[in-house]
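ASSEMBLY PREDICTION REQUEST
Request ID: AP-0331
Submitted by: J.K., bench scientist
Number of chains: six
Total residues: 824
Priority: normal
Notes: Please return the full assembly, not individual chains.
Input sequences:
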Amino acid sequence: MGSTPQARRGDTRQRIQDVAMELFAEQGYEKTSLREIAERLDVTKAALYYHFKTKEDILISLFQDLARPLDELLDWGRQQPRTLETKQELVRRYSVALQSALPLFRFMQQNQAAMSHLRPGETLKDRMIAMTNLLRDPDAALPDQVRSLSALFVMHTAIFAMQHIEADPEDKRKAVLEVALDLLAQAHPGEQAHPGEGVGDAPDAS
Amino acid sequence: MGSTPQARRGDTRQRIQDVAMELFAEQGYEKTSLREIAERLDVTKAALYYHFKTKEDILISLFQDLARPLDELLDWGRQQPRTLETKQELVRRYSVALQSALPLFRFMQQNQAAMSHLRPGETLKDRMIAMTNLLRDPDAALPDQVRSLSALFVMHTAIFAMQHIEADPEDKRKAVLEVALDLLAQAHPGEQAHPGEGVGDAPDAS
Amino acid sequence: MGSTPQARRGDTRQRIQDVAMELFAEQGYEKTSLREIAERLDVTKAALYYHFKTKEDILISLFQDLARPLDELLDWGRQQPRTLETKQELVRRYSVALQSALPLFRFMQQNQAAMSHLRPGETLKDRMIAMTNLLRDPDAALPDQVRSLSALFVMHTAIFAMQHIEADPEDKRKAVLEVALDLLAQAHPGEQAHPGEGVGDAPDAS
Amino acid sequence: MGSTPQARRGDTRQRIQDVAMELFAEQGYEKTSLREIAERLDVTKAALYYHFKTKEDILISLFQDLARPLDELLDWGRQQPRTLETKQELVRRYSVALQSALPLFRFMQQNQAAMSHLRPGETLKDRMIAMTNLLRDPDAALPDQVRSLSALFVMHTAIFAMQHIEADPEDKRKAVLEVALDLLAQAHPGEQAHPGEGVGDAPDAS
DNA sequence: TATGAATGAGGATTCATTCAT
DNA sequence: GATGAATGAATCCTCATTCAT
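STATUS: Completed
Returned structure:
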């Protein structure tokens, strides 16, 4: 790629994160050693410690970057009225975020265990619970609560489960989103979704 | 229950598996050391090596035990006609298996990475793909394929996602199963499910 | 000394302590690496960890062995009447203990800092304070308290300070003891020491 | 005291020495890292290297500063007649020096080991030997030599041993000095100390 | 005067594994 | 069936030091 050592000046921190992300996602946090990361970057292990205080710090820094879009979506959701439309929009936005951040989510799933001793409120699990709490109505019938929850999780699992199905990625995303929105609608019997807002096209992820 | 140290004679292998299962599920395979397992059993590390050739052997032995019910279900499914009813029964049976084996599945999820270098066809992922292939129809519309897939995965994710919701476990299971069966039915427009077979009660998990 | 590897079976723990003692006394705890200890014993570093949980554990184990005679002396002193004679006997016994345990005390002095974060009551300093509290009378005039304290410390410092003076070690010890007993007597004006008990000969330190 | 960051310009070298002194005295030389020193000064480690060539250089520079008063006292002593009065004056001056430089001496004691590979004649030990050689008479009886030695060392040990005794510091100093002078006098039987020169008051330590 | 970025050597510690008994 | 003692390789991490800027 023509990236000579000189051209790399100042971006070492970023490069560490990139490589770490890649390896953590591939092999998991525990199995990835700092030696491996350092070697791939052609720096010494000690150099990593100039940029991050501990190995876990690298993990956390990655996680925080990855969690930000989720946090923003949660913030947005909390400020909206608790209507079906809001929930549908949440799901739609989540679908888009997921599409452009699939490796990140893969990374997060691989490394849930390694992150499970974070401060409460800081884990992926906590964020997912927060998310589902925006979607489900605690007074609804249990099956309807399940439908709401599942609108969210279906997007995760289906995307992964469909990786070996041959089809256009955007088509797959729309198919999954359709099912998610369907579940959501079924979870709200008697309510009417906003007309004219379907699955729609994803914006460019530039 | 009267299991004195003497009474344990001969079941050390089983006890190792139990403890390993517990710890692997809790902290993951990589983070769990043989020292930890040995200490909890009050034996020496060397004793473990009398029963298992390597650490990975413990993992594999656990995995094989856990995978057997899944394999049996797959075998059964393969011998049935590819009808909606078969699929519904698959989902029903899966739901029951899941209920009595939740820790096992938790264990499997935690340790996917550690098992990913197994022979092809031996991983959990492979079995899940096989399972979804029994459920989905490759010629159906994409959203309907998603619905079929999701019938399966919803059972996983929802059960975990509902852990912090207060309700009777059996009620939760039925609610989840209802949604799964619903998805399946919706994935087969025009077909009619066998009447008189609803969510039903789970058999005793003796 | 003809100590073949075979002859060493079972005494590795002791040998670690011996070598550690030697090196800690010579270079101090911090400057001594486990590699050094292991190499001198011709075992691996990991072998050390079979016998001691941490490096500090080695230090503590040494310290406890060394502190025992001191503790015994303290115990004895606490059970005696608080008379001048008792104090004189304490000093006499201390002098003897010191003579046969000089390397140990050298070791302790070298490594005070490394041990300073022990539990209260566990440090050398605490024991010395306890010792001086047996010797001095808090109601006496300050200079007399100083004399009592000094009876103890003089034995330490003088022995070290006299190392480069040529004389028979036992003569040196007696000379120091004489001064210590003198200080003690002067600290108790008006009291009469037990007659017939002078500096005397040290018992064999076999 | 109005020492703004700006006011500190140019005294960085001094500030490094101050912080190093503090930390070396507290934790010892080996346990104190340059990172620690730099952080406490809010500069980079590299900045330390502008002022000192190595870590050991800091130690040596401190030691030389601290040793100067001792060297001056030694020089003075060497030029005086070898009388009891000279010795008494040496002890008196030493007592005063000690009082205003207690942390320094604490520092030196902590870090004897670290300095033990200095050129001969450069160590604290060497100076203490020189000092005792001014005090003791090699032809005197051994116990009298011990008394002379101890006159010096008592001042060290007693001051530290009395730290946990409640009393006015100046009173303590005088008490210790009295004992030291006493020891000296007793070491010179038949000689008469200069009359009218007792323990006296310490000069201001400006 | 200082810093930012890095290095090389070495630190303590842990791990899975082995083997004679 | 199990232990006691040990190993070799790897781990994360810290340190004093350097040097271009």
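REVIEWER COMMENTS: Residues 24 and 31 of chain C are 8 Å apart (CA to CA).
SIGN-OFF: pending second reviewer
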